[in-house]
């Protein structure tokens, strides 16, 4: 089988998603056998961008003209474009303040008005600019998810999606429910599972790093949290950590 | 006739960067180092967030360094709010720092530097040219990862460490398993120095001004910054000593410490009274002449020695944790107050400083993060120019290859450095 | 072998005897304080005064996630079900009835191989319980769907055997037992909440709307239910070629449950709650007309929004506004 | 690999022999299962379904479009709609597949014997009905008049059009075709009405009291056709519908395919209209 030509890169992000891939020590040799990494600046020299790719795996949100330029050229060159990680899918941490402050103010807070500010706009998911064929969520995604993705791409398909909230796996692991038993601010009911409820399993609430689950009952979750004495502002701040602009009235 | 050579993107390092060499004929006029990662603006994003959220958000500044960022942020917030933690918590945190050191050095040495030594493009080719070496390196990296994942609940952006305590403490079974893993990785880490003491095919560079935290035997309790041949200053006064400057072409800032371009990282630490574990101390003694007072080309060797040290130290921490037994997690009640706190840790790449202020409700009013790469950037720019000048007249590709290798000696982490801070 | 009595002081020795029949599992408390069935390494970890475990013992027969098939070399083959002999001690009668119900589903016509293999190596030792506020049953009952059942007596347990394996256990433990006249044993349990009229699901009861708007589709109710067994099947290729087909617990309250390409037969949460009602309390072919609710009270205890579908059948005046 | 007692969820190995495109998104796949599958497959009754495995993607329920050959070869007419069917459509002859079944209840053939049969197919609904049609034609003398009414959106989406025309020309059945609309000029080779399937049925005179009707198509079509058939005098227990649901196991355990208290995979997929009365979510 001809190895797939793959591009792996990041836009506005922390490289965690790409690193997750490099952290698959055991699987890496097999993975490298399936892929020809034509463009992977994090780990390779001699990258070629003007090629045709079987797949482009892109981490990060779009927040600068350079991001956009890279994204467009990858979209044009790749048969399958994968939004890899929460930032690429929902905007992620970089976008958390999108609905409450304007980009220019943020830039000024950091750079002062001493010099010319870098060009940057509100970080947005890839899908705001290009069509996306597949998605892997998580901040960072689970190793097994990226392995599943690569294996599926090599087989000419995509991995089937899981569609349940964090609570489902959390309960199945016999964790203590932090929302019910400790009245903590857990976002498990409205957040996409697949992480095997990592955080609640260590006794830490789900911070929502995988973005909304399908048909999240956001309004009810908000009510649950308000009932437990959290302020509306705090809840909104927490929910928008990985995805700005939830619809707080949504029930289905 | 002026010409410009550009190396873009810089590869096999974390983040997006480029280098431009401006030449007049064959004379090198100027070298420009650009860190072009998209601005992440963390210091601005954190304003208005509650103290408990700060460490959880700031670790996303950089995946590679997420553990040390999270630990440093926790220490800074705890410093501000006057929170004490238990010994188990402190040990677990330090264990994670050491594990971060192991996995980070292993990643950098085996995946990013080794290809230079063997003249290949990257990991993929490495897998076919030197599969055994790569495997050995990955095994060391994996041992670090396993510790991070088990102790932190997740490898990148750890979840288990939190303000004032831990989600859960490790049980004996887990600790014993981690000990096993680390012991298995030790021999390879002990051998690594052989690979990375290979001399560089390019000329000597200016002597660095090393900077590291003190005391060196208490990674979580550093209170002082020490500069070689300079005065030692308390961490909380860092703003009076570290100066930062915006340069138009780069999205990161250049910093100077007491007017000098400081060098931080493994080599700096080994130059400033390191407190090494036995095996690492032996290695250090063997290589002393290649390390002490040497330029940054020796940094990779220093990393290899530190990798061994970190494993030994982690083993010791685990022994102590086993002795103490698990601790029932009970997070202290934390009451917000208006305060400022600072903390610093030695990250794999060097000194990392966090500082935060909170209002009476516990909402963040100021956030400041100084990363090792930001600290190193001045020295890096200086060395690039020096090297380019020293190689004047050489073939362009030879020069660019050498410059890229020099950059990898510093092991810069651009993601971290491009966040910038309030002036 | 009637009138067998085990003094509480001999319980530890009795447990040791049980170990001869397989790995011993029993109710314990986890680090974070959750009741669960887990391997019993030390008798001190035993928590016999538990009300209910978060996950019922169905996890032993029908794991949350299971590799049912492997694909490779041109064909599919059965995933490994490396089941060893297992003894579960201290199961309440509701959970025993839950297993009896699952047996009807998975051991009927064309038995499920993984389930059947595990079931055949499972020894169940039941124990009497005390219902709490969440339980749907009203009195402690005894279940016959086990190998042995321990009903509480003064300073010990009366033991009844309900199978050949149970009798074998008793003979092995003979030296620990003494004769004591059995108390009149409590009613033998069965599904605890009676079968309901399927038409009720279309009643205009106001609770339907309330439930539909408050349920967060977290999945807890069915994950924790001893008789919920809906599953999803997905196939994942592996890096080395070949693939794995997994089976994982599903929940009828998820949007995908009734979805087909281009349509959803249960598009709203309300439709899905009705489906749940119908399946739980009215039964599907071939168990039509049979309620599967054994009264363990888990769905009520673990639902974050206190949904209890049985309230639909309680007179409206009893329902809180 | 042979197994002493074949497990209900292990597919028999099979491979793709040939594929023939029928329209843009639908193709006919001929697959050859390993000999071990024959014993089960030979019990196939039209209307039953098999679970087709496409390695790396998963498993989908499909109603064979013809009776299995004596060697066990199956013809499956599959539309590309999603995860599994996408990969299936990318496969080349020789590709490995898997098959389990047949499952469910097919058409009640003994009961239909001697009666006229009216087949009503909408769109892809022709696939399951084609195996019934093939059975009827092969046992032509055992049944009364056979009529197929088949509606498609437009001419190019009409599956098996030459083949059906040829069968009709042989005189074994009456064939009525209709398309919702015809963007291009219809060629003269086949006659085809313009309009919906129910319109076609309205103008049709037949011995309703004696007829069995077999219907398969998209859900909205059922409601309309059932009431028309009933109004026309066909007894509800002689109106046979082949329904589609999400299915995971095919053997009554995964519980996705409930229709009222029945399971589509065990009690169906062929149901009588009379069975579905009072089950609002059935259609
Ligand atoms: C008894 C029966 C007979 C069928 N016969 C045929 C046939 O002859 N030809 C044909 O093209 N199609 C037929 N279908 C429909 C076919 O099964 C679906 O189109 C197919 O499952 C879609 O799967 P997918 O993975 O490609 O699509 P996706 O939309 O990705 O489906 C995801 C999953 O949902 C389930 N699913 C989706 N759509 C359906 C559906 N309509 N019915 C059941 N499950 C579904 C599948 O299990 C699938 O794995 C039949 C369905 C049933 C129930
Ligand atoms: S702890 Fe959080 S994720 Fe787990 S069950 Fe409770 S609400 Fe859900
Ligand atoms: S539990 Fe929540 S925050 Fe933690 S990994 Fe899962 S989705 Fe992310
Ligand atoms: S436990 Fe409650 S909220 Fe969760 S899915 Fe079940 S009914 Fe809905």
From TrEMBL, chain A:
InterPro entries given in the database record: Hydrogenase_assoc-protein (IPR051349), NADH_UbQ_OxRdtase-like_20kDa (IPR006137), NiFe_Hase_small_N_sf (IPR037024)
Keywords: Oxidoreductase, Periplasm
Main location per the UniProt record: periplasm
Pfam families to which the protein is assigned, alphabetical: Oxidored_q6
Subcellular location(s) of the protein: Periplasm
Domain (NADH:ubiquinone oxidoreductase-like 20kDa subunit) ranges: 14-153
Protein name: NADH:ubiquinone oxidoreductase
Organism: Geomonas propionica
UniProtKB/TrEMBL annotation, chain B:
Alphabetized UniProt keyword annotations: Oxidoreductase
Any single Pfam family the record assigns to this protein: NiFeSe_Hases
Organism superkingdom: Bacteria
Protein name per its UniProtKB record: Ni/Fe hydrogenase subunit alpha
Protein species of origin: Geomonas propionica
Automatic annotation (TrEMBL), chain C:
SUPFAM superfamilies to which the protein is assigned, alphabetical: alpha-helical ferredoxin
Matches recorded under Pfam families: Fer4_22
InterPro entries, A to Z: 4Fe4S_Fe-S-bd, 4Fe4S_Fe_S_CS
Keyword presence, Iron-sulfur: yes
Keyword field: Iron, Iron-sulfur, Metal-binding
Domain of life: Bacteria
Iron found in the keyword field: yes
Domain 4Fe-4S ferredoxin-type: start-end pairs: 204-236, 284-312
PROSITE patterns (UniProt xref): 4FE4S_FER_1, 4FE4S_FER_2
Protein name: 4Fe-4S dicluster domain-containing protein
Automatic annotation (TrEMBL), chain D:
CDD domains tied to this protein: sulfite_reductase_like (cd06221)
Chain coiled-coil ranges: none
Top-level taxon of the source organism: Bacteria
Name recorded for this polypeptide: FAD/NAD(P)-binding protein
InterPro entries assigned to the protein according to its UniProt record, in alphabetical order: Cbr1-like_FAD-bd_dom, Cyt_c3_hydrogenase_gsu, Dihydroorotate_DH_Fe-S-bd, FAD-bd_FR_type, FNR_nucleotide-bd, OxRdtase_FAD/NAD-bd, PyrK_electron_transfer, Riboflavin_synthase-like_b-brl
Annotated FAD-binding FR-type domain residues: 9-109
């Amino acid at each position: 089988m001809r190895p797939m030509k793959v591009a792996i890169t990041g836009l506005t992000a922390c490289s965690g998603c790409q690193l997750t891939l490099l952290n698959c020590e055991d699987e890496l040799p097999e993975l490298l056998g399936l892929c020809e990494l034509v463009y992977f600046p994090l780990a390779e020299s001699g990258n070629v961008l003007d090629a045709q790719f079987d797949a482009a795996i892109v981490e990060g949100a779009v927040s600068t003209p350079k991001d956009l330029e890279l994204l467009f050229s990858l979209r044009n060159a790749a048969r399958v474009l994968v939004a890899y990680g929460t930032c690429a899918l929902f905007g992620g941490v970089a976008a958390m303040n999108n609905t409450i402050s304007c980009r220019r103010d943020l830039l000024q807070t950091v750079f002062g008005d001493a010099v010319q500010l870098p060009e940057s706009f509100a970080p947005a998911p890839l899908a705001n600019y290009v069509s996306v064929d597949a998605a892997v969520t998580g901040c960072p995604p689970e190793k097994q998810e990226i392995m599943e993705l690569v294996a599926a791409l090599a087989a000419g398909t995509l991995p089937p999606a899981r569609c349940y909230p964090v609570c489902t796996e959390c309960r199945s692991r016999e964790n203590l429910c932090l929302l019910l038993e400790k009245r903590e601010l857990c976002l498990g009911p409205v957040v996409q599972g697949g992480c095997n409820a990592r955080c609640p399993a260590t006794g830490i609430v789900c911070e929502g790093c995988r973005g909304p689950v399908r048909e999240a009952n956001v309004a009810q979750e908000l009510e649950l949290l308000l009932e437990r004495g959290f302020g509306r502002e705090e809840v909104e701040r927490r929910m928008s950590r990985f995805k700005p602009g939830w619809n707080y009235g949504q029930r289905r | 006739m002026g010409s410009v050579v550009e190396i873009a993107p810089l590869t096999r390092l974390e983040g997006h960067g480029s280098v431009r060499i401006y030449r007049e004929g064959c004379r090198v006029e100027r070298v420009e180092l650009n860190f072009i990662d998209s601005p992440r603006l963390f210091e601005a994003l954190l304003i208005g967030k509650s103290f408990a959220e700060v460490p959880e958000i700031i670790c996303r500044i950089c995946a590679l360094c997420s553990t040390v960022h999270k630990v440093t942020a926790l220490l800074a917030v705890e410093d501000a709010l006057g929170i004490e933690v238990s010994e188990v918590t402190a040990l677990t945190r330090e264990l994670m720092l050491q594990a971060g050191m192991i996995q980070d050095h292993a990643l950098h040495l085996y995946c990013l530097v080794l290809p230079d030594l063997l003249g290949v493009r990257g990991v993929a080719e490495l897998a076919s040219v030197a599969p055994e070496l790569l495997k050995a390196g990955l095994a060391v990296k994996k041992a670090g990862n396993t510790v991070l994942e088990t102790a932190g609940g997740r490898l990148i952006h750890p979840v288990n460490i939190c303000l004032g305590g831990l989600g859960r403490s490790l049980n004996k079974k887990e600790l014993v398993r981690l000990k096993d893993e680390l012991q298995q990785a030790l021999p390879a880490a002990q051998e690594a120095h052989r690979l990375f003491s290979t001399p560089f095919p390019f000329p000597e560079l200016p002597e660095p001004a090393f900077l590291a935290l003190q005391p060196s035997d208490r990674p979580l309790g550093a209170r002082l910054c020490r500069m070689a041949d300079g005065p030692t200053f308390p961490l909380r006064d860092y703003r009076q000593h570290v100066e930062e400057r915006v340069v138009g072409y780069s999205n990161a800032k250049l910093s100077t410490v007491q007017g000098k371009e400081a060098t931080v990282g493994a080599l700096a630490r080994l130059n400033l009274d390191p407190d090494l574990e036995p095996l690492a101390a032996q290695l250090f003694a063997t290589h002393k002449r290649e390390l002490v007072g040497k330029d940054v080309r020796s940094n990779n060797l220093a990393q290899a020695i530190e990798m061994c040290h970190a494993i030994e130290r982690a083993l010791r921490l685990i022994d102590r944790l086993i002795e103490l037994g698990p601790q029932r997690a009970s997070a202290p009640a934390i009451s917000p107050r208006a305060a400022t706190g600072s903390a610093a840790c030695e990250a794999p790449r060097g000194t990392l400083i966090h500082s935060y202020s909170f209002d009476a409700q516990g909402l963040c009013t100021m956030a400041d993060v100084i990363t090792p790469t930001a600290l190193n950037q001045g020295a890096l720019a200086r060395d690039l120019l020096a090297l380019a000048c020293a190689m004047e007249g050489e073939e362009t590709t030879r020069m660019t290859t050498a410059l890229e290798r020099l950059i990898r000696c510093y092991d810069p982490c651009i993601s971290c450095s491009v966040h910038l801070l309030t002036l | 072998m009637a009138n067998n009595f085990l003094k509480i002081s001999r319980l530890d020795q009795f447990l040791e005897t049980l170990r001869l029949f397989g790995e011993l599992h029993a109710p314990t408390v986890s680090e974070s304080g959750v009741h669960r069935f887990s391997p019993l390494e030390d008798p001190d970890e035993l928590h016999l005064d538990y009300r209910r475990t978060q996950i019922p013992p169905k996890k032993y027969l029908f794991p949350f996630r299971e590799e049912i098939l492997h694909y490779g070399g041109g064909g599919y083959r059965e995933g490994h079900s490396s089941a060893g002999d297992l003894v579960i001690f201290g199961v309440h009668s509701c959970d025993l009835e839950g297993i009896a119900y699952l047996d009807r589903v998975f051991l009927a016509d064309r038995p499920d191989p993984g389930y059947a293999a595990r079931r055949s190596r499972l020894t169940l030792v039941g124990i009497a319980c005390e219902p709490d506020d969440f339980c749907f049953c009203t009195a402690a009952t005894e279940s016959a769907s086990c190998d042995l059942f321990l009903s509480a007596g003064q300073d010990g347990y009366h033991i009844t055997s309900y199978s050949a394996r149970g009798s074998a256990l008793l003979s092995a433990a003979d030296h620990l037992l003494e004769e004591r006249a059995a108390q009149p044993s409590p009613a033998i349990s069965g599904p605890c909440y009676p079968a309901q009229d399927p038409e009720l699901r279309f009643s205009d009861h106001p609770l339907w709307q309330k439930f539909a708007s408050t349920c967060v589709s977290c999945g807890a109710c069915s994950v924790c239910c001893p008789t919920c067994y809906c599953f999803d099947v997905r196939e994942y290729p592996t890096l080395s070629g070949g693939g794995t087909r997994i089976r994982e617990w599903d929940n009828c309250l998820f949007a995908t449950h009734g979805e087909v390409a281009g349509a959803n037969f249960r598009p709203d949460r309300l439709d899905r709650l009705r489906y749940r009602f119908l399946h739980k309390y009215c039964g599907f072919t071939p168990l039509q007309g049979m309620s599967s609710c054994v009264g363990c009270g888990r769905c009520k205890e673990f639902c974050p929004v206190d949904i209890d579908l049985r309230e639909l059948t309680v007179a409206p005046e009893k329902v809180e506004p | 690999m042979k197994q002493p007692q074949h497990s209900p969820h292990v597919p028999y190995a099979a491979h793709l022999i040939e594929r023939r495109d029928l329209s843009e998104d639908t193709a006919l796949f001929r697959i050859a299962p390993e000999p071990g599958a024959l014993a089960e497959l030979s019990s196939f009754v039209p209307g039953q379904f098999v679970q087709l495995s496409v390695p790396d993607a998963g498993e989908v329920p499909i109603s064979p479009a013809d009776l299995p050959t004596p060697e066990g070869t199956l013809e499956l007419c599959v539309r590309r709609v999603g995860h599994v069917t996408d990969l299936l459509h990318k496969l080349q002859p020789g590709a490995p597949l898997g098959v389990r079944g047949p499952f469910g209840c097919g058409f009640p053939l003994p009961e239909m014997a001697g009666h006229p049969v009216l087949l009503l197919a909408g769109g892809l609904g022709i696939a399951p009905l084609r195996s019934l049609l093939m059975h009827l034609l092969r046992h032509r003398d055992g049944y009364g008049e056979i009529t197929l009414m088949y509606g498609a959106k437009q001419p190019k989406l009409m599956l098996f059009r030459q083949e059906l025309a040829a069968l009709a020309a042989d005189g074994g059945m009456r064939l009525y075709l209709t398309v919702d609309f015809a963007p291009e000029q219809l060629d003269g080779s086949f006659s085809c009405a313009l309009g919906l399937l129910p319109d076609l049925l309205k103008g049709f005179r037949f011995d309703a009291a004696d007829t069995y009707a077999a219907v398969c198509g998209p859900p909205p079509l059922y409601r309309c056709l059932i009431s028309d058939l009933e109004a026309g005098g066909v007894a509800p227990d002689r109106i046979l519908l082949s329904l589609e649901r999400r299915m995971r196991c095919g053997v009554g355990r995964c519980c996705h395919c409930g229709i009222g208290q029945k399971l589509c995979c065990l009690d169906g997929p062929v149901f009588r209209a009379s069975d579905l009365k009072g089950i609002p979510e059935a259609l």
